[in-house]
Amino acid sequence: MKEDPRKKYIGLLPQDQLLKLYAKHVNAPKVRTFKGFGFGVMPGERSGIKFKTLAGVKSSDPPLEIYNCRSSGGVFNLGHSNPQIVQVLKDALDAGLDIGDHMLLSEWRALLGKKLADLMPPGITKTTFGVSGGEAIDTAIKFSRAYTKRKGCVSAIGGYHGHTLGALATGDSGFKESFLWDIPDFHQVPFGDIDSMRKAVTEDVACVILETIPATGGVLIAPEGYFAEVREICDDKGVMLIMDEVQAGLGRTGEFWAIYGGMYSNEKVIPDFIVCGKGMSSGIYPLSTCSYKPFIERAVFKDDAFIHISTTGGSDLGCAVANAMLDIQSDPKFLDHVKKMGALFGKGLKEIANENSELIKEVRGRGLMWGIEFRDEDDCLKSMLYCIQEGVLLNYCGNKKDTLIIMPPLIVKKNEIEEVLIRIRNGIQKLRK
Ligand SMILES: Cc1ncc(COP(=O)(O)O)c(C=O)c1O
After folding, report:
1. What is the pLDDT of residues 177-231, one digit of tens each?
2. Is 188 in the pocket of ligand 1 (CB under 6 A)?
3. Ligand 1 atom closest to Cα of residue 163
4. At 396, is the secondary structure helix, strand, or coil?
5. In the chain, N or C terminus with fewer CB closer than 10 Å?
6. Is the CB–ligand 1 distance for residue 161 below 6 Å?
7. How far apart are CA 325 and CA 319, in angstroms?
8. Calpha distance 79→70 (Å, rounded)
9. Alpha-carbon distance 128 to 117, whole Å?
10. Distance 137 CA to ligand 1 centre (A)
11. Residue 357 C-alpha to ligand 1 middle, in angstroms?
12. Residue whose CA is closest, atom 8 of ligand 1?
């Protein structure tokens, strides 16, 4: 009989020994922080919307079972270890696919590029592949500069596009200062404030980059018409509009693209670039995409077809996995499921907010992407920890620490939503004790 592979890959050492190794050889402050939260545990077995830890908070305690309502920002849109996706990867490996050679052409990049073009808002037909979201964001910024021959970039205060140097330059100072990274041509404006955007977008600006729903910034919802006006401002000034759909795209809002009907059903804005990461991998094989209009390709690659490359970006294996993910997540029935589950979840969270209105200021979101804004940062942190104790993983927003972000996998079922809501309610009620 075949040996259970979990024995070979999960729980090889006791959790406390692994924490010591992690602290010694990976990152000690991270271990200290999680222990400080009372959550010094490591994920072990995982499947569907849940994972188990290797042990409890004390190594002698039994493993915890956690509902993953973080989904790693949308990585686990299809849950952990989705059997359909795992099978695709196994089949692709059996077929002899590998990473491929980035200098050569690739059957799988061609097929995935075509599938993405079919799913994109009209006119966005080209894709350059990467490994991480930050890499794909950097690509969009680079290409905007090559096309416009300008250096400026306007982004949102509180926005987050990654930690590679280009993406980092668009973000808040908290992440940049230690690395002495302050680029004069990069400016930030308040999200949703069209007048500030109009002032900032001058003829020196190459690109405006925005998340459709800033996640790290607090699950912010722009006023209706905001993105259409940003589009007009960019058009007037010849500026590229880059939409970061790393978290809000791929069906998270119940529409395939947040910028194209997902935010407001009557608002379908067509940017020049759409960037995806996280969920492109299905949590199984890393891939990111920077998709754009063909005139941009002509400007970037006209003198040198190899001017931008990524050795492991757009691997054949990653493309095969993403191809299967796109088939699942773009199915109208799947999107309908997200809409239904999102409505149920949003209703439940708003009820919890009403019951705790002295603690909670607002609940806002779209589809299965929700934020709970507390009146007090401390209450937000405590409620995150209480929810984790109740077995629901969610987190506060890195750039708006009074807000919890909640993103269950898109495959979440009705009974699971009901269970998660009970636990979140219990967690928040602990604040009163
Ligand atoms: C909206 C958004 N864009 C880009 C990124 C960067 O992705 P990565 O961490 O894969 O570089 C993130 C990561 O959290 C993100 O949330």
Report:
1. 999 998 899 999 999 999 999 999 999 999 999 999 999 999 999 999 999 999 9
2. no
3. 11
4. strand
5. N
6. yes
7. 10
8. 11
9. 12
10. 9
11. 32
12. 133
**Residue ranges of domains in the chain:** 83-329
Distance 131 CA to ligand 1 centre (A): 11
The phi, psi pair for 188, rounded to 5°, reads -120, 145
Alpha-carbon distance 196 to 26, whole Å? Answer: 42
Q: Whose structure tokens read 């729903």?
A: 213
**Count of CB atoms within 10 A of residue 96's CB?**
7
Residue whose CA lies nearest to ligand 1 atom number 15: 161
Q: Is the CB of 277 under 6 A from ligand 1?
A: yes
CA-proximal residue: ligand 1, atom 13 (nearest)? 162
Pairing of strands 240-244, 205-211: parallel
- pTM for the model stands at 0.98
Give me the residues paired with residue 242 across strands. 209, 273
The closest residue, in CA terms, to atom 7 on ligand 1 is 133
CATH topology of domain 83-329: Aspartate Aminotransferase; domain 2 (3.40.640)
Distance CA 276, CA 249 (A): 7
Residue pair 407/252 in contact (Cβ under 8 Å)? The answer is: yes
